[in-house]
Amino acid sequence: MKKDIHIVEEPIADYKKAEEDLLKKGLSSTYTERFHTMARLMKLNMILKSAKITHKKIE
């Protein structure tokens, strides 16, 4: 008697390929696209730097 074992297998993440894909995408972008991306990151940094985090106690 052979038992069927059903094990859920997660797909193995290929981080090296994902990193290479991101590098290729970044290198193929134009200087204008790079500038706009950097400007967006700088704006986000300024917003997060001045953010004040508050919380309330959960009763």
Describe what this molecule looks like in 3D:
The chain has 59 residues and is mainly α. Helix content is 56%, strand content 0%. It is built from 2 helices and no strands. It has helices spanning 15-28, 31-49. The model has no long low-confidence stretch (mean pLDDT 85).
**Count of DSSP E strands?**
0
Q: How many H/I helical runs?
A: 2
**Low-confidence parts lasting 5 or more residues at pLDDT below 50?**
none
What structural class is derived from the secondary structure elements? mainly alpha
Task: Based on Cα principal axes, name the global outline.
Answer: flat
Largest sheet: none
Order of helices and strands: HH
Fraction of helical residues: 55-70%
- Please, what is the average pLDDT? 85
Q: What Rg, in angstroms, do the CA atoms define?
A: 22 Å
What proportion of the residues form beta strands (DSSP E)? under 5%
What distance separates the N and C termini? 56 Å
Quick overview:
56% of the residues lie in helices and 0% in strands. The chain has 59 residues and is mostly helical.
Keywords:
59 residues; mainly alpha; flat
How does the SSE layout of this entry go?
Elements: H1 15-28, H2 31-49
